[in-house]
Specification:
This protein has 15 helices and 19 strands. Helix content is 30%, strand content 19%. The strands form 4 sheets. A 10-stranded mixed sheet has the order 11-10-9-8-12-6-13-14-7-15, with helices on both faces. Strands 16-17-18-19 form a 4-stranded antiparallel sheet, covered by helices on one side. The longest helix is centred in the middle third of the chain and has 24 residues. The chain folds into 3 domains: 147 residues, no CATH class; 312 residues, Alkaline Phosphatase, subunit A (3-Layer(aba) Sandwich); 78 residues, Arylsulfatase, C-terminal domain (2-Layer Sandwich), CATH 3.30.1120. The chain is α/β, with parallel strands linked by helices and 579 residues long. Bound molecules: calcium ion. The site of calcium ion has 6 residues, from loops.
Length: 579
């Protein structure tokens, strides 16, 4: 029975069983037992379940005491309930069972009561069964308190969003990489859904991140290209509403760990964009041991804790991120939390640990350096997620994983190392290899496990999808993403995206792309993977992805009508995002 039905049943029961209500209104205190100072059946018909859940989270967490509390038998470690509450409920039920004038319901019934005890108020969900055995009923009652929070999907889930950096389209074992060891990501895929046509909204860092965090294409999010990595320069405009701001408004604890690259002023750093806490680097990349900016410099040390410049010389940044992530989860384990882990791997510099360098030493360069860093990243992800299992939070936590765009061919990454598999293009390119990325979502017990989806989806979809799954109000700003919950749940669902648009960089001749169904047109394409030269007639590059996902053959000359249609779509979109 779903929670709304159960709450409605509770309300009905309250209405029809006045004597029961009056019993709860004036409980008798058995000798020598603690009892609530006040206890009453409350009206729940106007309560939304998120409010009920938040109340429980808030009050139970406020009232818990780890020394004198015990774990709910049904929901395990999620909420520790004070001993006194168990005793109180037990006494009430025992009293109830011994009163002949109160007829027990003949079928399962339920009511919701509010307890005030020890200066705190609790809510409990009580089920009555015609067992006539006090202890059996007690167990059921105590369990139901947990069930309200757990089984009925009432507790807003935690969300951990892992955003990897420059990870190639197929650079996960379960995406087809044969020479790469990624047990943590493969385990995540086995516990969730992974996508084969998932798109970053941009082929470079800042716009990709802005789009994911706002649910809007980069142009609408105010970040059409990479923002400055220099201290003192603003990034994403503060009027943009981020997932963190959406979650914070709904009562979530919000944390950022890792890379930011969306602004380097107090207002545009993470604490200014909805994150209660932030640990990491503000620019595009750092040396993972010294934490100095890795692009240029010199003398640009980039490590920050809640807006304060800090030093952790010689400490490996992936380890620091795991420590911070663990601390955040521990601190907020009893309330809904949102953790944005923008892990800066496998972005250059490729600093895999010695263990993984040895593992791949037989491979050619630069693949071996890249693989070592990917497996170092995967190991870190495994360590972070192990905390969820340790705290038994896995089934209460949605874990999302995505790479920010395709792999790099820049000098700083030894000219390559990553792989887009069958796809053409890489970072900076709007061919598939620049924007089609590995992506997964996992919520054990709630979403399918070990399944694959081929429908088109995008990074802009995470915000509305999270809002949908956690039952949170969406922000009041135009979104380009759509909830993909139906796609996550079913391989037969239709993608909410008939079309999607990209544009990278500014100037008079920016690279752009539009996908309409299986057709895709790229304007002014770049192939950073150098799989084939861009010919002089390739200024409009048309492909049908269902027939040729490799994008090696330009169909534009043979389909001028489709080229025209997609150009019109692009022009209309440019006009739309310019307003
Ligand atoms: Ca990146």
């Amino acid at each position: 029975m779903g929670l709304p039905v159960r709450l409605a049943a509770a309300h009905q029961l309250r209405q029809s069983r006045c004597r029961l209500g009056s019993f709860f209104d004036s409980p008798k205190k058995p000798e020598g037992e603690p009892l609530a100072s006040a206890c009453r059946v409350i009206s729940v018909d106007h309560w939304c379940r998120a409010a009920v859940a938040r109340l429980i989270v808030h009050r139970v967490s406020q009232g818990q005491n780890s020394d004198s509390s015990k774990t709910c038998g049904f929901c395990k470690a999620r909420k520790r309930l004070p001993e006194e509450l168990f005793s109180t409920v037990a006494c009430m039920v025992e009293e109830h069972c011994h009163r002949d004038d109160l007829a027990l319901p003949t079928t399962n019934n339920l009511t919701v009561v509010e307890f005030a005890t020890g200066g705190l108020t609790f809510m409990a969900c009580l089920v009555y069964r015609p067992m006539g055995h006090c202890f059996a009923v007690m167990a059921l009652v105590v369990g139901c308190l947990g069930m309200l929070a757990h089984d009925a999907n009432a507790l807003p889930p935690n969300v951990i969003l892992i955003y990897t950096d420059d990870q190639g389209s197929v650079d996960v074992n379960c995406y087809g990489a044969k020479d790469l060891i990624t047990p943590s990501l493969d385990d995540l895929a086995s516990r969730g859904v992974r996508f084969t046509q998932f798109y970053a909204a941009a082929p470079v860092c800042s716009p990709s991140r802005a789009a994911m965090l706002t649910g809007r294409v980069p142009q609408r999010a105010g970040v059409p290209g990479n923002v400055s990595s220099a201290h003192g320069n603003a990034g994403m405009p503060t009027e943009q509403i981020t997932i963190a701001e959406m979650m914070k408004k709904a009562g979530y604890a919000t944390g950022h760990v890792g890379k930011w690259h969306l602004g380097y002023t107090p207002e545009t750093m993470p604490n200014g964009q909805g994150f209660d806490s932030s640990f990491g680097h503000m620019g595009g990349c750092i040396d993972n041991w010294s934490h100095f900016f890795y692009w240029n410099g010199p003398n640009r040390h980039d490590l920050w804790l809640n807006g304060e410049h800090i030093w952790r010389d010689g400490e490996f940044f992936p380890d620091l991120m795991v420590q911070q992530g663990h601390a955040f989860i521990e601190q907020h384990k009893d309330q809904p939390f949102f953790l944005y882990w923008a892990i800066n791997l496998p972005h250059y510099p490729l600093q895999g640990t010695d263990k993984w360098r040895k593992k791949y030493e037989h491979l050619p360069a630069p693949r071996r350096m890249y693989n070592a860093f990917v497996s170092t990243m995967d190991e870190s992800i495994g360590k972070l997620l192990a905390k969820l299992d340790e705290l038994k939070l896995r089934e209460d936590t949605i874990v999302i994983f995505q790479s920010d765009h395709g792999h790099s061919h820049e000098d700083r990454t030894f000219g390559g190392g990553g792989s887009a598999g069958p796809y053409r293009g890489a970072k900076f390119s709007l061919f598939e290899g620049g924007i089609r990325v590995p992506a997964m979502i996992s919520w054990p017990g709630r979403l399918p496990a070990g399944e694959v989806r081929d429908q088109m989806a995008t990074a802009c979809d995470w915000m509305p999808t999270i809002a949908d799954l956690a039952k949170l109000p969406r922000p009041e700003q135009k979104l380009d993403g759509h909830s993909i919950t139906s796609v996550i749940r079913s391989a037969d669902a239709v993608t909410p995206h008939q079309q999607f648009h990209w544009q990278s960089g500014g100037g008079n001749n920016p690279q752009w792309a539009v996908r309409d169904g299986d057709w895709k047109l790229i304007g002014n394409p770049r192939d950073t993977s150098n799989k084939a030269p861009i010919e002089k007639d390739d200024g409009r590059f048309l492909v049908n992805l269902a027939e040729d996902a490799s994008e090696m053959k330009n169909l534009a000359a043979g389909h001028p009508d489709i080229v025209q249609k997609l150009e019109r779509l692009h022009d209309a979109w440019v006009k739309d995002v310019s307003n």
